[in-house]
Amino acid sequence: MPAHYPFKEIEPKWQKYWDEHKLFLAPESPQKKYMVVPMFIYPSGDIHMGHFRNYTITDALARKKMMEGYEVMHPFGWDAFGLPAENAAIKLGIHPEAWTLKNIEISRETLKRIGICFDWTREVTTCLPDYYKWTEWMFLLMYKRGLAYRTMGKVNWCPKDKTVLANEQVVGGLCWRCDTPVETRELEQWYFKITAYAERLLADIDKLKGWPESVKTMQRNWIGKSTGLEIRFESENGVPLTVFTTRPDTVFGATFMVVAPEHPVLEKLPVPAGKKSEVKAYQEKSRRKTDIERTSAEREKDGVFTGAFALNPLNGEKIPIWMADYVLATYGTGMIMAVPAHDERDFEFAKKYNLPIRPVIAPMEGNVELPYTYTEKAKLINSGAFSDLPCEVGWQKIADKVEAEGKGRRKTEYRLRDWLISRQRYWGCPIPIIHCPKDGMVPVPEEELPVLLPKKVKSFIPEGRSPLADVPEFINTTCPKCNGPAKRDPDTMDTFLCSSWYLFRYADPKNEKAPFEPKKVNTWLPVDNYVGGIEHATGHLLYFRFFTKVLQDAGYVNFDEPARNLFNHGMVLDAQGRVMSKSLGNTVSPIEEIEKEGCDVLRLAMFFAAPSDKEMLWTTEGVLGQSRFLSRFWRLAQELKDYFKAPLHYKVDMHTSTEYDRALYKKLNWAIKKAAEDYADYQFNTVISAVMELLNTFGEVPKDSKVAHYALSKATQLLAPVAPHFSEEIWQILGHKPSILASGWPKHDQQALEETIMTLAVQINGRLRHTVTLPKTMPEVEILKHLQELPKLAPHFEGKSVVKSIYVPEKLINVVVR
RNA sequence: GCCGGAGUGGCGGAAUGGUAGACGCAAGGGACUUAAAAUCCCUCCCCGAUUCUUCGGGGUGCCGGUUCGAGUCCGGCCUCCGGCACCA
User: Fold this and answer.
1) Comparing A555 with A581, which gets the higher pLDDT?
2) CA of A720 to C1' of B52 (A)
3) Domain that holds residue A323
4) A798 and A712, same structural domain?
5) What is the dihedral of CA A705, A711, A713, A718, to 10 degrees?
6) A734 and A783 both lie in a single domain
7) A506 belongs to a structural domain
8) Within this chain, do residues A668 and A709 fall inside the same structural domain, yes or no?
9) Whole-angstrom Cα distance, residue A396 to residue A398?
10) What is the DSSP annotation of A411-469?
């Protein structure tokens, strides 16, 4: 173990200093703002290494910007509603609120202890009435704008626990708690009409210049835009059967139709009496399946023939209508034309039930192997007047004809579904709607918000409906319109609603009159840098963008995208490479190591172990190296504190200085330059190694050095974002005025990096043969001449002639000889 | 299956198309010490020579290509990790 620097004294000392001097409070009207935000967390217990990684990243970014003279907002909050609190209540007998607030206390203390520079005056806690009042307000905004609606929807239902389950609580079709097969139930649910924003959410992805490609791709796929054609088939008895297809070029290959079992049109089809019971049985069977079961691609498809037939509008062909649950009622029109020759799913189905398979697309050259799903270098066959057209042309021509004859129209479909936001749970934000037998659904007037969550409920154990439904003093109320008796909506909101607008609240966290003052939000947002894990790519980040657009449309904010830059840090895995999770019990708290080594050492170890965007295995092996590094730094500071003290802006004359000073000064400026580049790329690991290299350059320091003290001061500044307490202390030891955060950011002296001589790598035919030191000014021809005269290189030139040479100034020369 | 990301020493990792392995960990050797810890110095991808500090060859998952020059660019694979997965 190395001799520690006294981190136990200096860490609390500087935390106190920062606090007393209010260094981390974001001003109301910044001149040069920088808002950096880590994704807030669900307070499930204590902070682990994954959180530690996230917050040290934003902390370093925030501190770096402070040193560069920005006014920084670095806020934090708690995503405090949610299921685990109810589970804790059931298991431990503690009220969800008490459990949650206790956890927040613990986590906040931990975060303070690791010196994260949050502006705690802006803290938001989503489960407190001063916050959820405005979540309710957001709901009403959606409602007023026609973006919130209530309708019947399918949910997962565990018959043993008598509860609905979230999709993620259904594991392999079974309840996560009791392994009972999950059923599907129809319940009336609240939805947000995010699909109304599908096109904008998709198109504006192109504006997200500072977002990772991976997230943008995931969002594009999630929204899943497809352009195609709606075509109206007709049943024999004249019932229109409209299908959506992205392949109008294959219409002539439609050999049957498939309708989703829950499709209402089935009532109108001429199903022969003999088929009715079979159809009913299949519908019944499908209904019992969960969406998860139904959409599993591995399952073998099945279905039944309805006995009815339809007519193909293009060729008048009579084709059978089948019913199968591989067709989703919720996408397109809930029925399809099946083209087994050119669709894998239809092919599988046709094979199973011996339905005809007719190829209508063929490659320009070569043979067809069915199913043939390509469109490139392919043409139509067996398609009447359209035969021989290339696919793309046939696509358009058929679409044109269908539109011209009024049998359909071009259409864009999205995979994105509306957002189901209601939950039959206690620990969430109430839905501010009153159900009146006379007036129907009536929104709670804004001045009556918040609808408070009652503290006392009969039981937290879910009975299949919200526990709030069983609290008479909550559920029974009067209608705001007619004053007659009415009932409150018993459901609570999905917690993703709470997290869809919390960043806006940071700009105006104490506002009692509104969720925020638009001016304040427009001052601080869009967020300059939003940092978190990739797991929120298609959930939270999409909802957050959706809310922003709605708030813009409603005139509350003047921007259409909430975050200029998004950074995804890599996951922290345990030493065996497994994801750290509570259920595996392999989470590691940073606290133990912090007590042994200090939190700056742990921060450095974290940063140094891997680039921030890559996943990392957490082991304590690297900790020792960082401990040694800071200890050496510390000892050097003690040694140099009384050496020549240069001013903070200082240039060394490269001609008159000692060789030692020149070399150190050069390395210093190299490090300053490198650190600037690497900080900008989130490459904290190489920032640290650059400072290590600089430290290694000090060696035995001559007493008369005019640079050593200066270089160490600058090195301290470079380290300040990643090792904040340590840097403050060294800064003071070296005789500078605190805080180092106010000391400015070092700029490199280009002159120091400019040399008159260069070290040149010499390649002969692309292979490294030698390195030479030559004056920078030497022209290529002379270098070449010089090389040919070197005895060491003589064997390479012997009996050969120089064909050409490639000279990369100051780096390398490649001589091609033959 | 589709979409991302990644494969470099014993390990974590570094390298604007230009000297592969920076920086650190581990390991081995040495100095200091009564001893240990701490600290400092040296060695540390593989093979072969060697006057002992140099030289030659090979080497960044595999196979090709482009280039004076490829870890880096292009094409085709393999493996691992994430995400999505019957969306017509």
Assistant:
1) A555
2) 45
3) 225-414
4) no
5) -170
6) no
7) yes
8) yes
9) 6
10) EEEES---EE-EES-SSSPBP-EEEETTTEEEEPPGGG---PPPS--S-SS--SS-GGG
- Is residue A334 domain-shared with residue A405, that is, in the same domain? yes
Residue A482 lies in a domain: yes
Nucleotide nearest to A571 (CA to C1'): B82
The Cα–Cα gap between A105 and A679 comes to 32
Model pLDDT, residue A162: 66
Asked whether residue A242, judged by its CB, lies under 7 Å from any atom of the DNA or RNA strand B, the reply is no
Residue A578 lies in a domain: no
- Kindly tell me if the per-residue pLDDT of A160 is higher than 70: no
CB A322 within 8 A of CB A279: no
CATH number of residue A475's parent domain: 2.170.220
A759 touches strand B (CB under 7 A): yes
ipTM for the complex shown: 0.93
Contact by Cβ (8 Å): A445, A483: no
Whether the CA torsion A229, A234, A235, A238 is positive or negative: it is positive
Per-residue model confidence as pLDDT tens digits over A710-754? 999 999 999 999 999 999 999 999 999 999 999 999 999 988 888
Axis crossing angle, helix A7-20 with helix A599-609, rounded to the nearest 10 = 90
Question: Quick one: A165 and A99 in the same domain?
Answer: no
Indicate if CB(A771) is under 7 A from strand B: yes
Q: With a 7 Å cutoff on the CB, does A548 touch strand B?
A: no
Boundary residue ending a domain (A472, A495, A518): A495
Of the two residues A472 and A330, the one the predictor is more confident about is A472
Q: Is the CB of A766 under 7 A from strand B?
A: yes
Mean pLDDT, residues A205-210 taken together: 89
Query: Strand A812-817 and strand A757-764: pairing?
Result: parallel
Regarding whether A110 and A20 lie in a shared domain, the answer is: yes
Instruction: Determine phi and psi for A136, rounding to 5 degrees.
Output: -60, -40
Å between CA of A569 and C1' of B6: 15
A254's tokens:
């439609």
CATH number of the domain at A528, please: 3.40.50.620
Length of chain A: 818
Number of domains in chain A: 5
Q: Residue A798: which CATH number?
A: 3.10.20.590
% of residues, chain A, pLDDT over 70: 95
Q: Do A489 and A538 fall into the same domain?
A: no
Q: Which residue is nearest to nucleotide B17 (CA to C1')?
A: A808
Residue nearest to nucleotide B11 (CA to C1'): A621
**Are A680 and A734 found together in one domain?**
yes
Q: Nearest protein residue to B70's C1' (by CA)?
A: A766
Mean pLDDT computed over every residue of chain A: 89
Q: Does the CB of A457 sit below 7 A from strand B? A: no
A135 in any annotated domain: no
Protein-contacted positions of strand B (CB under 7 Å): 3-6, 12-16, 18-20, 22-26, 37-41, 55-58, 68-70, 81-88
Name the nt closest to A759 by C-alpha to C1'. Answer: B19
User: How confident is the model over A415-468, as pLDDT tens digits?
Assistant: 888 888 888 889 999 999 999 999 999 999 999 989 999 998 888 877 767 889
Q: Which of A495, A511, A526 is the last residue of a domain?
A: A495
